[in-house]
Amino acid sequence: MDVSQSLASLIEIVWLSFLLSGDNAVLLALATRALPQQQRRPGVMLGTLLFIFLRIAIAFALLACAGLPGVGLFGAVLLIWTALSLAMRPESPAPNAPRRSLSAALFACLAADAPAALQNMTAVYAAAHGERPLVLFGLALSIPLLALGSAQFITILRKPPLLWAGAGLLGWVAGQMAAADSFVRASAMPPEIMRDFAPPVGAILAVLLVYGFLRGRQIKSLPLE
User: Fold this and answer.
1) How far is 105 from 198, CA to CA, in rounded Å?
2) CA 60, CA 172: separation in Å to the nearest integer?
3) How far apart are CA 143 and CA 139, in angstroms?
4) Under 8 Å CB-to-CB from 28, ≥6 apart: which residues?
5) What predicted TM-score, i.e. pTM, was given to this entire model?
6) Which helix H or strand E contains 80, and what residues bound it?
7) For residue 183, which of 86, 105, 76 has the smallest C-alpha distance?
8) In contact, 167 and 210? CB cutoff 8 Å
9) Most buried one in 41, 59, 66, 190, CB count within 10 A?
10) How far is CA 70 from the centre of its chain?
11) Is the pLDDT of residue 97 over 80?
């Protein structure tokens, strides 16, 4: 990978990391507020550590599975769904049911964060083209962002028109990930064609899905005559 490709990957990783940062601070607050006062601070600290370890485990699992047949296709489908889930994301996370023990609260946090962590690290891996230093950079960047999921400037990234750009970027790297899958490279389709056409097709598909969902929600919100 040359310097220009590395720089482009770095920009994509930063954008996607901000775009997909979870609402972890709010999630921890909601999950630990029902705990006794003396357990709330340990709950927040342990929950943050669990979020970090989860991302580390996913990142290294993706690196270990690099080149396995089907991993790229699975990641591509996941990233297209991730683009759609950006439009489906509620304005604020719904509060969880009250938890009476520290272990139950931590389990609830981990279960709620797992999909976001998988989406985040898969997007980083795709933008990094599987290059270990870039994946580790994205992993390191995701850690301080755990506390910024509800920050105002990140919320702006999740609204049109920047939402379209984010969805398109997710679709683009999804296409790149699919084209690099060993199943696809072993098919009758020439690799050059897949490499050139899969990213724009993925970007168009992601944007159309997001547009269709938002348009449908807008129509449903119109008053009936």
Assistant:
1) 42
2) 23
3) 7
4) 43, 44, 47, 48, 109
5) 0.89
6) helix 71-88
7) 76
8) yes
9) 59
10) 19
11) no
Q: What is the DSSP letter of 189?
A: S
Q: What is the gyration radius of the CA atoms in the chain, in angstroms?
A: 19
CB-neighbour burial class of residue 25 (10 A; exposed 0-12, middle 13-18, buried 19+): middle
Q: What is the span of the domain harbouring residue 137?
A: 3-221
Domains of the chain: total: 1
CA distance 198 to 205: 10
Report, in this order, helix, strand and coil percent for the chain, each rounded to 5: 75, 0, 25
Distance of CA 95 to the CA centre of its chain: 21
Distance CA 99, CA 116 (A): 22
Backbone angles phi, psi at 139, to 5 degrees: -65, -45
Tokens 């909601």, located at residue? 30
- 92 Rama class: left (phi>0) / alpha (psi -120 to 50) / beta: beta
Q: Which of 80, 88, 89, 72 is nearest to 183 (CA)?
A: 72
The string of DSSP codes covering 11-47 is HHHHHHHHHT---HHHHHHHHHTTS-HHHHHHHHHHH
Residue 150 and residue 25 in contact, taking contact as beta carbons nearer than 8 Å? yes
pLDDT in tens, 117-164: 999 999 999 999 999 999 999 999 988 888 665 566 777 888 888 899
